[in-house]
């Protein structure tokens, strides 16, 4: 069972072009999520994050650990993550179900793990290692895929469910990634949602995508589309009220524009989760 310390409200991804405005304006946002690796060093970035953390809950979202890599985990990376967790005391810590390293070469992408023999025990061992070092539960996010692998033994949801059972980790459910995979690979997003066990999801992500040469790319560079809103509704109806993050990583509008998108998400969550009025 995942117990999230965040309220079931909308959160917003904090990106560097907006940090100064956030510090100056202190906008009405329930919580912020940042990419962990951006704060591994010292100096101004971590000082700014500590100032924001003084006023808001923060979730740490990792993009570089590469849990599914055959190479051993980068011990320096893991220790830097632990130091950041200890310093910021985030509400949640998450990582992607991906790989990014091979024979000491690093790939700057979230490469999907082929769900073949050996993937499950490797991932379970890595997740257990990270949770032991951090001393807390880790949420694992489903990722976007652009090619399918032959002879896969399970769906991504089946793999996530088994990892939850073996390690006690939770799931960060990205419904935009589910929809991207539907468009690219023909997977069934609703079936993936309905397979995950009740209680395992600790956070949900929504975002936008773009299509290039007939391939749908998870750019986080566009508004949330109607189909992703519908998948969010389905997830909230299955798992109950949860913290939901709006991600924007490119084509960033000014903070005022991003806050307008955030308020749309907050209103959507309210409409989806509040009980219907019963006529007297």
From TrEMBL:
<dbReference type="InterPro" id="IPR036237">
    <property type="entry name" value="Xyl_isomerase-like_sf"/>
</dbReference>
<dbReference type="InterPro" id="IPR007801">
    <property type="entry name" value="MbnB/TglH/ChrH"/>
</dbReference>
<dbReference type="Pfam" id="PF05114">
    <property type="entry name" value="MbnB_TglH_ChrH"/>
</dbReference>
<protein>
    <submittedName>
        <fullName>Uncharacterized protein</fullName>
    </submittedName>
</protein>
